[in-house]
Amino acid sequence: MLLFDGRRICQYLEGRRTDVVVMGGLIETDRRHTGFRVLHEGELAGSRLFSRWSMGYAPIQNADLDRLASCSGPAVVDELIRRLPSFYVAP
């Protein structure tokens, strides 16, 4: 899931741990990306949120991204799930 507020990007990655870690490393070392930080890394409590997608995109408001960025740990995933119905998601 790729969230974009017109200025900043927040990407939610899920899958096999090794694959996600490799992808995060690629994103972090890409010179086009600045201010990279991991908000949460851990095992899913349940099933995958987006198991049928390879990538989804949602344009969101600055305040929505601010709220996600202000969370840490599992609260980030909880906030994403809570706000997801209000996003227009293009798979």
Brief overview:
By secondary structure, the chain is an alpha+beta fold. The protein has 3 helices and 3 strands; from the N terminus they run E-E-H-E-H-H.
Overview of this protein structure:
- The termini are close together.
- Helix 2 runs antiparallel to helix 3.
- The chain has a three-stranded mixed β-sheet with strand order 2-1-3, with no helix packed on it.
- The chain has 91 residues and is of the alpha+beta class.
- It has one domain.
- Helix content is 35%, strand content 10%.
- The protein has three helices and three strands.
- It is globular and about 30 Å long.
- The longest helix has 13 residues, at 17-29.
Major sheet strand order: 2-1-3
Give the N-terminus to C-terminus distance in angstroms. Answer: 9 Å
Tell me the number of structural domains.
1
| Elements, N to C (H/E) | EEHEHH
Strand content: 5-15%
Quaternary form = single chain
Q: Helix proportion of residues, in percent? A: 25-40%
Q: What radius of gyration results from the CA coordinates? A: 13 Å
Overall form: globular
Mean residue pLDDT: 88
**What structural category do the secondary elements indicate?**
alpha+beta
Which parts are unreliable, with pLDDT below 50 for 5 consecutive residues or more?
Answer: none
Report the major sheet.
3 strands, mixed
* Count of individual helical segments: 3
Total DSSP E strands: 3
